[in-house]
Every structure is written in C-alpha cells, then in structure tokens.
Amino acid sequence: MIQINHLSKKYGGSWKAPRDMNKNAEAQVYNRGNWALHDVNLTITEGMVGLLGPNGAGKSTLMRILSTLSTPTSGEAFINGVPLHKSEDIRRMIGYLPQQFQVYPQLTGAEFLDYVAAMKGISDKRHRKVEIDKLLEQLNLQDKARKKIRTYSGGMKRRLGIAQALIGSPQVLIVDEPTAGLDPEERVRFRNLLTRFSLGRVVLLSTHIVADIESNCRQIAVLDQGRVRMSGELADLQALGQGRVWEGVLTEQEYEMLDPLSVVSTRRTEEGMLCKIIADIPNVNSQMKRVNPTLEDGYLALLSDGALGRRGVSSDA
Ligand SMILES: Nc1ncnc2c1ncn2[C@@H]1O[C@H](COP(=O)(O)OP(=O)(O)OP(=O)(O)O)[C@@H](O)[C@H]1O
Fold first, then answer.
1. Which of 74, 116, 164, 242 has the highest CB neighbour count under 10 A?
2. Alpha helices (H) along 142-284
3. Which residues line ligand 1 (CB under 6 A)?
4. What is the CA radius of gyration of the chain?
5. Which amino acid residue places its CA nearest to atom 6 of ligand 1?
6. CATH of 2-9+35-233, one of 2.60.120.10, 3.40.50.300, 2.60.40.1260, 3.90.1150.10
7. Predicted confidence (pLDDT) per residue in 41-57, tens digit
8. Ligand 1 atom closest to Cα of 208?
9. Where along the chain do its domains lie?
10. pLDDT tens across 254-299, in order?
11. How far apart are CA 253 and CA 256, in angstroms?
12. Ligand 1 mean position, distance from CA 208 (Å)
C-alpha cells in the first residue's frame, strides 16, 4: 500500500511564506519557484493503479519521490507503512522504471540484468540466472540476451528497463510511462504482463495515454498542474463526461469558431466537419446530439474544466 499525505514539491527558488496568506497567497507562492506538486493526497491499495496526466503534470516528480530519488518539499509518504526517509528499506521493497532509463551500452542484456540482480541482493548465481531467463522470455528479449545493449533498438532498451524493474518480484512496482517507444503488439503484451504481476501487489503506472489505463487498471488518479484532480474507479472518470459530449456535422466556419480545447475529434466528410466536442451546451447553429462519454472523454472533460479555471484566473489578474 502507498499512502501519500499532503505531498508538495518545488523546484528552484526558496520557500518563503507570503506575509498575508489570505491575500492571493497561492499566486505569490507560485512566483517563488516552480511547484511541480501541490498538496497531493492519495491512498493506493492493491492492484494496478494508473496515474494519468498531461505533460508536465508532475507524474515523474511524484514517482521519483516515491522511489526515494528525490525528496519532497513538504508532506510525507509511506510504502507498506515505511516512511520514505528510510530509503534503503524502501528500495528493497520497490522496483522502479524511470522515464529516462540509462543502460550500460557495453554490457549484454543478460550481463546488465545479472548486475542489477546482484545489486538487489540476489547472491546465488543460479537463482539469478533462472530469474533472468524467465524475465528475458516474458519481455521477448531472449534472442538478444547475449548481444551488447548498444545494438538494441529503443523498444528493446525499454523492455530491458522493465525487466530490471521486475527483478526480485518487488511488492511495489513504480513504472513511469512504461509503454513509450513500444510498438502496439509489445504494448499489449507488456500491459498483460503488468496485470499478471499486479496480483497481490501494487503497480503504479504513469501515462498520458488513456488506453494504457483503460484496459488494465482498477483505479486511477488524474494529476494536472501538480494537483490531484480526481481519484477513484475508471467509471468515475468516465462519468465526468456525462451529458457534456456532443457529436454532429458542422460547417467549416462553425468548426473554426470552436474553442480548440473543446474538440475531441474531427473528420472531414462530404456533409461537412464531423466533430465530437465537450461543452455544457454547444454554441453552434448546426444540430449536435449528446453521446455517451468514453473514458477519454471523461478525462478531457476534467482537463478542460481545469483549463477553463486557469484561464479564468489569468483573465482576472
Ligand atoms: N529537475 C527539475 N528542475 C526544475 N523543474 C523541473 C524539474 N523536473 C521537472 N520539473 C518541472 O516540474 C513540472 C512537473 O514535471 P514532471 O516531469 O514531474 O511532469 P510529468 O507529468 O512527468 O510530465 P511528462 O508527461 O511530460 O513527463 C514541470 O513543470 C517541469 O518543468
């Protein structure tokens, strides 16, 4: 279980509380550095949990903190009851795949995994070999195992990164955008591997691709601008689009007048522009009909509320 309490992280600058906390306090704090996380509270119990958010939302920052590679500015978190400052104990419990995964190009894949396994404390050589052979097969890397990593493609390096995170069957697996660079077949294979692995464990997976979460995650948390915008079941996110997703054929002029942030999809047809948009009421003359939201629609509806809110703030300033 991962318990996160009031976690915040600021990059750069130094923390200084505004003199008058009641007066536009947040804007003043913003000006004194880049807050990548703001008062994040989350409880992640068991199974595969998706951390979804657009670029720059704070997903990698949160994962680096949970992996003890970065420290929070304030707040705390526990993994299976162990506080993050006990970093050695935490590292024994977790597997981590960073977004930028560095490998040793002069080693073979098998040598690299053997090295990681030894560093993780698996001292018996035969035990390491059995585990590594199993992982190489699961990640479809057995043919490349004896080749130097510098000859691997980007997707192969990604799979090797996933293998190293799985060594030692950690109780908690933290994977940052694990499917980036994988082709569609590998992506599906990898999602299924993670789902199998998540039985009886915690897998926290970050992504900005809704499909990565839709097929395999039980629970979801959405981060945007460093804040948790929602957490719960997938159906809760989908429901946020209820009554707000519209489809219809628009004229080109109407299409050009649309707020780009509200447009989910567009296709040119013989009749005009077939559009799906998110809006409380569409501001067009052509007829649009309400459609049931997908998970992605719910996510976009949530983000568009945030974007509208932010626009409201900046126009008031
Ligand atoms: N080392 C750093 N120094 C300064 N700012 C940073 C640093 N790392 C991240 N940031 C900033 O913190 C914010 C959150 O970044 P983070 O990488 O955690 O987001 P993310 O959700 O993982 O994004 P992406 O999906 O693009 O990887 C961004 O504004 C980013 O510019």
1. 164
2. 154-166, 184-197, 210-214, 234-239, 252-257
3. 11-12, 34, 36, 53, 55-61, 99, 208
4. 22
5. 11
6. 3.40.50.300
7. 999 988 999 999 999 99
8. 25
9. 2-9+35-233, 240-312
10. 999 888 888 999 999 999 999 999 999 888 888 899 999 999 999 9
11. 5
12. 13
Mutation test of ligand 1: which of 60, 175, 177, 204 has the most ligand atoms closer than 8 Å to its C-beta? 60
How does pLDDT run across 116-146, given as a tens digit for each residue? 999 888 889 999 999 999 999 988 899 999 9
For residue 24, give the amino acid letter.
Answer: N
Rounded to the nearest angstrom, the distance between the alpha carbon of 23 and the centre of ligand 1 is 28
| Ligand 1 centroid, distance to 70 Cα (angstroms) | 12
Hey, whose CA ends up nearest to atom 13 of ligand 1? 36
Long-range contacts, 113-121 (Cβ 8 Å, 24+): 113/160, 113/163, 113/164, 113/167, 116/164, 116/167, 117/167, 117/168, 120/92, 120/167, 120/168, 121/92, 121/168
> Which residue is closest in CA terms to ligand 1's atom 16?
58
3-state class (DSSP) for residue 59 = helix
Question: How large is the ipTM?
Answer: 0.97
Could you tell me the distance, in angstroms and rounded to a whole number, from the CA of residue 55 to the centre of ligand 1?
Answer: 8
User: 43 - beta bridge partners?
Assistant: 3
